[in-house]
Amino acid sequence: MEFKDYYDIMGVKRDATQDEIKRAYRKLARKYHPDVSKEADAEAKFKELGEAYEVLKDPEKRAAYDQLGSQWKAGQDFHPPPGWDAGFEFRDFGEGGPDLGGFSDFFESLYGRAGRRPGAAGAGGSRGAREFRLRGEDHHAKVIVDLEDSYKGASRSITLQVPEVDAQGRVRTRARTLNVRIPKGIRQGQQIRLAGQGGAGFGGGEAGDLYLEVEFNPRGHYRVEGADVYLDLPVAPWEAALGATVKVPTPDGPVDMKVPPNSQAGKKLRLKGRGIPARQPGDIYVVLQVALPPADTPKRRQAYEQMKQEFAFNPRAGLEV
In CATH terms, is domain 222-310 a member of 3.40.50.740? Predict the structure, then answer.
C-alpha cells in the first residue's frame, strides 16, 4: 500500500490554514471536475483530490494524519504503525457519510469506513440554540493500556489530544488529562464510557459522553486474542530435550510450568484460566522457542562437534532437496 501525501495532492504547505485548504480545493475541483475538464486523467485526480480534502478539511482527521510525520514520501510502501491514532479525541462519526465513490486503501487503513462523514453540523443558528436543548456529540478516542491493568484493574491518568482551529485558522491540539478507571477484565476493543465528558450541549442541553476504546500496549511480551494470552518462551535445548520446570512470566506474576521431555520448538502449552479475568477466564498459551547457546569459545565449539558425532540427526529429512 502506498503512502499518500495529501498536502502535495492539494498543493498546499503542511501549515496551511483551513481557509487556504478550502480555496485550494475549490480551485483544483474546478480544474479537474470530470464534467468540465479536458485533462486525460481528470476523473482520477478529482477523486484523489476529494479524498485529500476529506482529511485536511477536518481538524480531527488532519491532526491525526499529521502525527504520522513527514518521514513518509508519496508512493513509499506504507503500513500504519500500531496505535498510530491513539490519544486523539474525535467527534462521533455516527454511521459514516455517503459513499464518495470509494476512497483508497490508504484512507481506509487510517480511518476506516466510519471516516467518511459530512462536516460536523453546527448549533443550527442562534434561533435554534435559544429554542432547543440539544445534547452534545459523543466523542471517541483510542487509548493504550498495559495488559497488566486488565488483570487487576487500575486508575490511570490519560492525556488526550483535542484538535482545534486557532484564531489564525491553523489546526492545533490541546492536551486534555483525565483520571480513568481501567476495569478488571476489560478486553482489547472494548470501550470505557465517561459520562458527560464528550461535546458540550446547546441551549443548556447535557454534554455528550466520551468513549475510550482500549488497545493493549504492543511493546509487551504478550499477544492477545479475545480473553486468551500468548507468550513465546525461550528454552534451552536441554530443557526441551530432557524436560524441565521453568518459571513463566504472566501478567499476574510468574508461575512454574513443566516442559515435557522431547518438546519441539513451536510446542504450545496451556496455563488454564490464567488469561484475562472473567466469569469464564481465558487461558495463557506458552509457545516454546528453542534458543541455541553460541559456539563462541573453543570448548563450546567442541561440545557442538561432539553433539554432531553423537546424534544421527537430520532436521531436513522430510524435505525434498
Answer: no
